Amino acid sequence: MLGNLERHSHNSSRKDLTWHLTTRFRARVTSSRETSKEKIGEATDSQDLKNEGSSDKAKGKLGQVVEGLKDDVKEATSNLNDKISEVADKNK
């Protein structure tokens, strides 16, 4: 993962990297917060709170997956652009 972030910081502006890290942090905090909500629902026998926590936790995990996919697409695009540049340089 760190390799992705290093490439990302090298290929993108500082603002993009800050946004990326903030988004990932928020997704993880949301997932953790909702796990707590789910556990409190279990402790207080509140099915509504358990359901809300489970649903929100799934949203947080989905956000993490989406961010991971974005990283993968950016890395693949960067690699493809590098290969295209190499081929173009060879054909000059």
Question: What brief labels describe this structure?
Answer:
mainly alpha, 3 helices, 0% strand, 92 residues
Give a summary of the structure in a few sentences:
The chain has 92 residues and is mainly alpha-helical. Helix 2 packs antiparallel against helix 3.
| Separate helix tally | 3
* Number of beta-strand segments: 0
Separation of the first and last Cα atoms: 35 Å
Query: Major beta sheet, specifics?
Result: none
Helix content: over 70%
Structural class of the secondary structure composition?
mainly alpha
Question: Which radius of gyration do the C-alpha atoms yield?
Answer: 19 Å
N-to-C SSE string, H for helix and E for strand: HHH
Could you explain how this protein is built, in words?
The chain is mainly alpha-helical and 92 residues long. The protein has helices spanning 2-11, 14-43, 47-90. The radius of gyration is 19 Å and the shape is rod-shaped.
Write the layout of secondary structure elements.
Elements: H1 2-11, H2 14-43, H3 47-90
Helix pairs in contact: 1-3, 2-3
